[in-house]
Specification:
alpha/beta; Rossmann fold; 2 domains; nine-stranded mixed β-sheet; three-stranded antiparallel β-sheet
Length: 320
Amino acid sequence: MAAPPRFAEKLAHKLFADGEERAAFLAALDPQGKRSPFASCVLWRGDRPDPLPFERLPPLPWQPPFVDRLADPLARPGAHPLHGAGEFYCLDFSSVFAASILGAIAGPVETVVDVCAAPGGKSVFAWRSLRPDVLIANEAIGKRVPALLSNLRRCRIGPAAVTRCDPQTLAPRLAKVADVVLVDAPCSGQSLLAKGETNPGCFHPVNVNKNANRQKRILAHAAAIAAPGGYLAYTTCTYAIEENEGVCQWLCDRIGGFEPVPVPSLAMFQSPLTDWPCYRMGPQSGLGAGAFAMLLRRTDRGDRAPLPPEFGAIATIAAP
C-alpha cells in the first residue's frame, strides 16, 4: 500500500463498525499490481447504436439510463471509432455514482456551472442528464484546459463556455447565475490506490487537511454562483471524513443558506457517519474505486442574476 498503513487503518476504524467490512476495505486498497478490477463504463451522448458495439452488464437500480457498464474487463472503449466520433464518453463508475445525485434535481435547468471541470466527465454527465440551456465548464489549471475543451467539442456539448479562472475570480462574474453548480473537488485521491495506482501520502493527516482547506475555499466561492433556489453538488474521489462530510458540514455552519437534499435512488449508500443525506461508495463494493457525493440547495429567495453575454457559446475565456 502506498500510504502509511496506520493512517489507512485509523480511517477504516472510523468508517466501518464491522470488522469484516474494515478488512475488505483495506484489502481493496492493495490490488497487488493487478489491473483495475472495476468495469469500464460508457456514457452515451444520445441514443445507443443498434447493434451495440459492447456487451453490457445488467444495469443497477440507481444506474442512469444513458450509462453502460461493460462486461468485458479487457474492453478498450476509448479505441472504438464511436469514441472518436463523440458518441460516448468513457467514465469511471465511481464518477457515475457521484454524478448520479443530479438525478434528484427537478428541472427545467437553464444554467449549469462546473467549477472544477477538467477533463470533462462531470460536465458531459450534467449536460446529458439535465439538458441545460448553457453549460459553463471552468478549470483553474491552464494545462488541463485543452483536454476539457477537446472533450466537449468531441462530444458536441453546447451551448457551452470553457473558462480558465480561479474560483475566487469566477464567483463574482457569475454570482447567483446558476441553477446547478458542480464542485468535483481536488482531493487527496485515496481511491487511486484501489485502481492499482500509486499515491504516496494520500492518507497522511497533513495532506488530508491541506486538501480539506482547499476544498472549503473552492466551495465557498462556488456557493456564491448558485442562484436562489439553485443546487450545489459536491463530490470527491476520496474517503477522508475531513474532505467529505466535514467540508459539507463546514459549508452549512460557516457559509449558511444551504440545506441537504435527499437522493432516494442512492439511499443504500447513505453515509453511516451522519444523519445528513450524503452518499459513499467504497472499493469493497466491487463497483468502483470509491466516491463521495452530496447535493445541497440554496434556501434564500430572490431573483437570479442574468447570464453575462460572453458565456453564450463554446469558447475559451481566459481570466482577466
